[in-house]
Each structure stands twice: as C-alpha cells, then as structure tokens.
Specification:
Elements lengths: L1 H8 L9 H21 L2 H5 L3 E3 L3 E2 H20 L5 H28 L11 H8 L3 H25 L2 H19 L1 H7 L4 H10 L7 H31 L2 H26 L1 H26 L8 H15 L11 H20 L7 H20 L4 H4 L12 E2 L2 E2 L3 H23 L2 H11 L1 H6 L4 H27 L9 H14 L4 H17 L7 H15 L8 H14 L1
Antiparallel strand pairs: 1-2, 3-4
Helix pairs in contact: 2-4, 2-5, 4-5, 4-7, 5-6, 5-7, 6-7, 8-11, 13-18, 13-19, 13-21, 13-22, 13-23, 14-15, 14-21, 15-21, 18-21, 19-21, 22-23
C-alpha cells in the first residue's frame, strides 16, 4: 500500500535545457556529422556530381542540408519560438558546426593526415574552401553554416502556407538533380522526350533556369492545392455514395493504367529493374506462406528458385545436357510441379525441427543442393560449373519476349496469378491452420491439425511460387550457372518480408520495391548507396517495426498489445 502511495505521488520532472547549451550541443552534433562525412570521403566523392550544373554539387548540397538540419533541430527543441530567438540560436549552432569543419581544413592543410584517412587531401580542402584559401575558406564555412542554420530555424517556424509549398518545390528540383542520369536515360526514347531532356538538363546536371522554374511551378501548384483542398474534399463528400465509390475506382484504375504503361515509356533499364522486383515478389509470396503464415523459417529457399530455373533450362535449352526441346509454356508447368515435389521432399527432414534450429537446418539443405549442382558428379546432368547455355526466350505467336520490358509483363502476369492464389490460401482453412501452427504447434495439434500435412503443404506451395520466379529468371538470362543461386538470395527474400510486413501480401510488394528496386535505381551513387540505404532501413525498423504494410492480423495484435500496456 505504501508503495502505491509513493508511486502515485511521484512526478517526473522534465529536464530543462538552456538555449545556450542547446545551441552548443546541436552545433557539436551536426558539426560532428559534417566532419565524419568529410573524413570517410563521402563529401569528396559526392562533390564530383552536380545537382544544378555549374552551381551546386551533391557534396555542397549535403553540407547545406547538415547546416539546415541543425537549424531545424534548434527550432523543434526551442521552448519560445520567436523568430529572433530561434534565428540567433540557429546562427550559433551553424557557426559551431562550421568552425569544426574549419578546424578540419586547417588540420588537413597543416599536417599530413592521409596516412590515417585517405580522404583528408587537397581535393577535400578545395571543396570545403571553394578555392578561397585557408583564411577565406574557414570564414566562409563559419558564416555559411550560421546563415543556413538560421534559415533552417526560421523555415521551421514559418507558416504552413509558406513552408509546405517551398518544401515541395525544392524537393522536386533536388529530385530531378539527384536522379538526372536515370531521368535522362528514360527521356531518350523519342524526339519529344529528347527535346524535354535537352530543355531541363545538360549532361552534367539540371540547368539553373530549369531548376528555378521547377521550384516556382511546384510551389505555386502546392499553394493552390492547399487553398482549394478543403472545398474539394467537402464537395466530394457531398456526392452520393455510389458516385464517390465510382470516383475512387476510376482514380485507382487510372493509376494502375499509368503504372502498366510506365515501363513502355521508361525503357529497358526501368523494365529490367521492375522485372527483378517482380521476381523477388514471386519468391517473397512463396516464402511468406512458410514464414509469414506458417512460421517456418526457411533459409534454404534459394534452392527452390534454382530448381525452377534448372528445370526450365534443361527442358528448353539448345545444350548438350538438355533433356528435351519443349517451348517455354510447356516447360513452365513442369518446372512448377518439380519445385513443388522438391519442396515437399525438402520439408520431410526438418518436420520435427523448430525455431533457430529450423533456420540452420534449412540453410544446410539449401547449401547441399548448391554444392551438388556445382559438383563434377552432377556435371553430365546439370552442366556443373559451366551451367546451361542457349535458353530460348518465350514467344506468344509471332511476338517474342526478347527484351526486359516484355519479360516484365510476363513477370507481372505471373505475379498477379500467384498473388490471387496466395490471397485465397491465406483466407482458407489451410491458411488458418498455418497461422495456428505459427502461434503454437502443440495447441494446433491438440485441436486436430495434422502438422505433417500442413507443414509439407507450406513447403511445397511456397516452393512452387519460387519455381515460377526461377523459370522466368532462366529465360531472362538465357543461361544459368550455379553461382547465380547464393544464400544471399534467401536472406534478401526474408528481409523484404520483414521490412514489408510479415504475413502481408501488399507488404511483400512494398518490401521488394524498398529492398530490391530502390538500390538498383540508386546504383549511380556507387558504393555509398548501401551506406545511406542501410541507415534508412535501420531508421524505418525503429519507426515501423511491424513493417511498411503490416497485415490486418498484425495490426490487431499490435493494437491489443498497446491497449494491454496502457
């Protein structure tokens, strides 16, 4: 009872930080970030890439963003958000961050530090000082950091009618500048698109006048939308229910049509990326049956992908190891059936294994299959390390699917069929049985569920979905080799399920876009794409641990846990 009285009378006191201390800590924090980016070579590497041609590089943009971030943090933590107060604190924080970079410039120029950090070189000094020399460059860093941080602080407290349009406008221009190589690649498929490319871009980056036009147009459009949004919403809600439903379906149909036609306009590179995403969606929906629904952690899933690819290759290729000369459409169902059988056989040795031991066991089985395929013993049948060559592309009548865009539509059609089957399975008795053994195998068995049959069906059906992906993968490359089927594929498929949301079909698609599609689109950023990509994934898992698109059941579980913890 005494404990209850003490607990009820306890009041947590929020720690009050003085403006001066907040300014100092923020400046040191963001100055440390800027120094780190310089020391590891990111700024030097990014400085070679223009955002706006002959005006601002990506490296300079990163430094500006760091300074603005300091100002935003100052304004967000400030208790009194007056313009003068936050501007002064922003000036101080930015000046501190700039001073830290200035110290780095002086140290790099005075001492030979390249034996420790190779990025601390003359190009870095020139980039940070803009060629103004040590004194002028350090002054520029301090003054520039202070001004941009103050601008960030004032921007944070500005009215939404000013802040949002500017944010959208600057973001649009930055996006065009960052991805200018990819955008220019997509704008070369016709005279009209090529004329648009020449209007907005040079081969180095976005034109300055075009960047200004983009900022102004997007900002005005956003400001106009903010003015009429409420009236549009009210008028839409005033419509009869059938009219609202029809409008929503019409908008959805329009978006689907645009998404379907986009690869045709974007070209082969985007088609290749989307096709790769589709292959992982197919594998993800298969592994989602095993892990997301049945709770059977499988790290040897790549073996089913390989079985589908090799079956298609051996039945269609013009190769000494080929077993037949079937068309792709004849080989595809055989490949699916073969992977289903292999999946069931794969599940038999691990029926009594659970938890982490199941993951290790399935990984071992997957590696056994890869080693067997690579061995000299299986070379007369499977080609060994030489693989299987001359796999023909599929054809529909006279139309040959011989480019990435055409193969993407094949992948999309297969993904749609597989998604429908997976959706029906999820809501069937079999799906509910899988979810029961995922929660507790002993209780599920006590309720009359046959664990052997249910588990083998999960392995078999999941493998069949991966077999479809493997079959398309074989005709995409026109040749397959054992080294194409590494453990990393299984890990990537498992990761996209976790990121997208366990047990969620839409989550598989979103996870595949996030983990497979975006890194491919960011390939032009070189080796640093995975650094920032990894940071984004870590932040995402901290903010949304349930996944980007969790299933309805997962949402209910989280809501119940939240209510129980209150």
């Amino acid at each position: 009872m005494a404990f209850d009285v003490v607990a009820s009378s306890y009041r947590a006191r929020e720690k009050v930080t003085s403006p001066a201390r907040r300014t100092l800590t923020t400046g040191i924090l963001f100055g440390g970030i800027a120094v780190y980016l310089a020391v590891v070579g990111i700024l030097t590497s990014f400085n070679e890439r223009w955002i706006v041609a002959d005006v601002i590089t990506l490296g300079q943009g990163v430094l500006i963003l760091v300074a603005i971030g300091a100002g935003l943090r100052i304004a967000a933590k400030a208790r009194v958000r007056s313009a003068v107060a936050v501007a002064l604190q922003g000036l101080g924080a930015g000046a501190i961050a700039g001073t830290m970079l200035g110290v780095l410039v002086v140290a790099t120029s005075t001492f030979k530090l390249r034996f420790m950090f190779i990025a601390l070189s003359t190009p870095l000094v020139k980039m940070l000082t803009l060629g103004l020399g040590i004194g002028g460059g350090v002054a520029l860093l301090i003054v520039g950091g202070a001004l941009f941080a103050a601008a960030g602080a004032l921007f944070y407290i500005a009215p939404a009618v000013v802040r949002r349009p500017l944010t959208w406008g600057i973001a649009a221009a930055t996006f065009l500048g960052l991805f200018q190589e990819l955008i220019q690649l997509m704008l070369q498929s016709g005279k009209t698109l090529n004329a648009i490319r020449e209007t907005f871009f040079t081969w180095d980056g976005l034109r300055l006048d075009s960047a200004i036009v983009v900022v102004v147009v997007v900002a005005l459009a956003m400001a106009g939308w903010m003015r009429v949004r409420a009236r549009v919403h009210d008028r839409f809600e005033a419509l009869p229910a059938p009219a609202r439903k029809g409008a929503r379906l019409g908008g959805l149909a329009f978006l689907i049509l645009v998404a379907l036609l986009f690869p045709l306009a974007a070209g082969n590179f985007i088609g290749q990326v989307l096709m790769l995403v589709g292959l992982y969606v197919l594998m993800g929906m298969g592994l989602n049956l095993e892990v997301g629904l049945a709770g059977l952690l499988d790290l040897g899933f790549v073996a089913f992908f390989a079985v589908g690819a090799y079956t298609t290759a051996l039945l269609t290729a013009d190769s000494p190891v080929a077993l037949a000369a079937l068309s792709y459409w004849q080989a595809l169902p055989i490949a699916v059936l073969m992977t289903l059988v292999v999946g069931i056989l794969f599940g038999v040795p691990v029926l009594g294994v659970r938890g982490d031991y199941l993951a290790v066991a399935t990984m071992g089985l997957g590696e056994i299959i890869r080693v067997v395929v690579l061995s000299d013993m299986a070379a007369p049948l499977l080609g060994g390390a030489q693989g299987v060559l001359n796999i023909p592309r599929p054809a529909i009548g006279v139309w040959r699917l011989d480019n990435p865009v055409a193969l993407f539509y094949l992948t999309l059609a297969c993904s749609g069929i597989v998604a429908y089957i997976a959706w029906r399975l999820e809501n069937s008795r079999l799906g509910r049985a899988w979810m029961a053994i995922r929660e507790d195998e002993d209780v599920a068995q006590a309720l009359g569920i046959n664990l052997v049959n249910i588990k083998l069906l999960a392995y078999g059906l999941g493998a069949a979905f991966a077999g479809v992906a493997g079959s398309i993968f074989a005709v995409m490359l026109s040749s397959i080799f054992p080294h194409s089927f590494q453990l990393l594929i299984s890990i990537n498929v498992l990761a996209l399920i976790i990121v997208g949301g366990m047990g969620s079909l839409p989550g598989v698609v979103v996870g595949s876009l996030a983990l497979i599609g975006f890194p491919e689109l960011l390939r032009e950023f070189g080796e640093y794409r995975f650094l920032f990509y990894g940071l984004v994934i870590i932040v995402m898992m901290r903010i949304r641990p349930e996944g980007l698109w969790p299933s309805a059941a997962r949402k209910r579980e989280l809501a119940e846990l939240h209510e129980a913890s209150r």
